[in-house]
């Protein structure tokens, strides 16, 4: 008898999008492969898709499928073997006073205000700095899988950071994180370190960080969390860091 996920895969369709400008490597074109229909992508199916290099944006499950480029490589961190380096230990100590609350995906006005400030401060002109409340909800608050909203606040109650994570059968998938663009001390790095600790507390072996692009400063930082693996030609292999 086939596993339910195997049956679902047989009914999924995969199609390529039109070409669009690459967001990470200037001057290049990009294309994505999309899994559909969305209502068939439940939590077990999505877990299997992530292991094959897919990722989620709202209800949109996709992976890079460019014609002449293979720079985007899925990356995951071995949570059981990870040991923070000196800089990462400092980051953990610096933000150790943040109070964490895990909740279902839900609208919070101060979350959107922080998201808007983050986009305007960190990604001006990228298009997302003009997102409406509706676009924000579609991007981060819409999911058919097991998703969580995690907020980080100072003891005073001031919101510092929000993360959206998906719970998979073999790990957590880091969907998106935004934070106070004026705060010092690598809040984004702290968010990843917190997610790694959360994986260990849930006995989950992997933290999936989306795509690693060696040539892109925006994405190359992910290889700082070691040991990590990248997916090439359908096989996960440990990334050798020079």
Describe the structure.
The protein is of the alpha+beta class and 242 residues long. It has seven helices and 14 strands. The model has no long low-confidence stretch (mean pLDDT 91).
Keywords:
242 residues, 2 domains, Aminopeptidase, 28% helix, eight-stranded mixed sheet, four-stranded antiparallel sheet, alpha+beta, 7 helices, globular, 14 strands
Quick check: average pLDDT?
91
CATH topology of the largest domain: Aminopeptidase
Q: Which term fits the overall shape?
A: globular
Report low-confidence residues grouped into runs of 5 or more: none
Query: Which H/E pattern describes the elements?
Result: HEEEEHEEEHEHHEEEHEHEE
**Strands ordered across the widest β-sheet:** 8-9-10-11-12-7-13-14
Our count of helices gives 7
Strand content: 25-35%
State the name of the first-level CATH class of the largest domain. Alpha Beta
DSSP, total strands: 14
Largest sheet: 8 strands, mixed
CATH architecture of the largest domain: 3-Layer(aba) Sandwich
Please tell me the total number of domains.
2
Structural class by helix and strand composition: alpha+beta
Proportion in helices:
25-40%
């Amino acid at each position: 008898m086939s596993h339910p996920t195997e049956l679902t895969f047989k009914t999924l369709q995969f199609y390529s999008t039109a070409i669009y400008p690459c967001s990470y490597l200037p001057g290049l074109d990009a294309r994505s492969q999309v899994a559909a229909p969305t209502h068939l992508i439940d939590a077990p199916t999505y877990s299997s898709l992530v292991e094959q290099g897919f990722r989620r944006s709202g209800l949109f499950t996709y992976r890079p499928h460019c014609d002449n480029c293979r720079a985007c490589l899925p990356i995951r961190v071995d949570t059981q073997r990870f040991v923070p380096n000196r800089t990462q230990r400092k980051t953990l100590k610096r933000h150790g006073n943040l109070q964490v609350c895990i909740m279902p995906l839900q609208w919070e006005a101060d979350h959107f205000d922080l998201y808007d400030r983050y986009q305007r401060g960190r990604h001006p002109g990228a298009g997302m700095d003009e997102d409406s409340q509706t676009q924000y909800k579609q991007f981060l608050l819409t999911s058919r899988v097991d998703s969580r909203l995690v907020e980080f606040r100072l003891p005073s109650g001031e919101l510092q950071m929000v993360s959206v994570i998906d719970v998979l059968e073999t790990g957590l998938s880091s969907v998106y994180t935004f934070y106070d663009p004026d705060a010092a001390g690598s809040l984004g790095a702290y968010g990843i370190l917190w997610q790694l600790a959360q994986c260990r507390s849930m006995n989950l072996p992997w933290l999936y960080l989306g795509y690693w692009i060696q040539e892109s400063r925006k994405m190359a930082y992910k290889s700082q969390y070691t040991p990590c693996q990248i997916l090439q030609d359908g096989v996960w292999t440990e990334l050798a860091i020079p």
